[in-house]
Amino acid sequence: MNLPLNSTLLTGLIYLNAAVFFGLAGATQETPPNIVLIISDDQCWTDFGFMGHAEIQTPHLDRLASESALFTRGYVPTALCRPSLMTIITGRYAHQHRTSGNDPSPALAKKNSPEYQNLRARLIAHIDEYPTLPGLLGERGYVSHQSGKWWEGSYVRGGFTDGMTQGFPEPGGRHGDKGLEIGRKGMQPILQFVDQAVSHQKPFFIWYAPFLPHSPHNPPERLLKKYSKSGRSMQLAKYYAMCEWFDETCGQLLDHLRSKDLTDNTLVVFVTDNGWIQRTPETEVPENWRTSFAPRSKQSPNEGGVRTPIILSWPGKIPAGRRDELVSSIDLMPTLLAIAGADVPGDLPGVNLWPVVQAQGKPIQRETLFGEGFAHDIADLENPEASLLYRWCIQGQWKLLLTYDGVTVRYAPVHLREEKRPQLFDLLQDPHEKHNLAARHPGVVARLAALIEDWWPVKDRQVLTSF
Prior knowledge:
single chain, five-stranded antiparallel β-sheet, alpha/beta, globular, Alkaline Phosphatase, subunit A, 467 residues, nine-stranded mixed β-sheet
């Protein structure tokens, strides 16, 4: 088991190793760019100024998007935070890294018992089996900082040299502990890390995954007043204000990079971990629905759960422009490693976007984008199929969604599978998936279903296929 090391000692060792590496590489080797990864937590793909929202103001991210390659049809493969973040950090789908949900099922052992704590430890140990993004960047000489949402134990366990999360089994270590203070209580830990990396002349990687706009929705009063108005529910006003609060923190980070003259050699990446549609008193929900998000958003394979804008910004190296190709968070690890000149594992399923974004007009070598959905609670830590609820793919205008009989345990209303037939949507004509066209296009359903099965053959779960 990997144990957290003293941050100062570990950072010093990394700096020493980096100095040796670059010394051996020679003075002619180009310095790799700094990399800043911004991950929004629970935010719908529509809820940004640059995505056309009429009310929510996100001026800092709007400016970033205007200077960047903006992929408006970005996705995460899984609409739940822990598996989604594990996909970003390992570059693998949830059925590959096997962290398919947030927690081990309480059906496996009584919560808070020694047996359940052992299950949590076994789940965290999945990250030890794969190279991680900060770990591979470290081999290239990078120092790295973790802040915000982080489920996989100490930041050290993820390959970071510095960070905020102590991690399980420390008290409060389920999904971030002190890391969750970033943004909500200021940006100082990240800003100090940037200053330290600059003073040592080292390339750096930042994982900024704040607990924003995630609930609790308790925005500053000045922002809440801005969005409160007659006819708008307080729940919605609070959520809108949280989105702008998140944007403000991004502005603080980006402004600090500018103040240090780092912008020209810093790649900034933006993605959300999963979607969110705010529930209001008018929202129709199933019986016993206790969550504050609306159906067809978080934990759902619908667009409200898995779609996200993806931004890649590097002035002078990545031309700015809106792009409509299909991209996924599964693509980030191979892309960032390639840009950094680091080793890219040969078995990563994502697409390296670096050759594509260097010049507008070059097509992405992908025809089909895939995703999957699982229950919140993991029924079998080694067999993701046990909790499988959905598989889906997108090709061109079409999205096919297949439903499976995986075990849900808790959160049954969230995991309702009332529509058991295959669901086929024309996303270009129907981006909010209101019309199931599967019965009209059986050939498209059969073709895309075959692609899904080729992508990840499933043996233990039954697909619900009757029309």
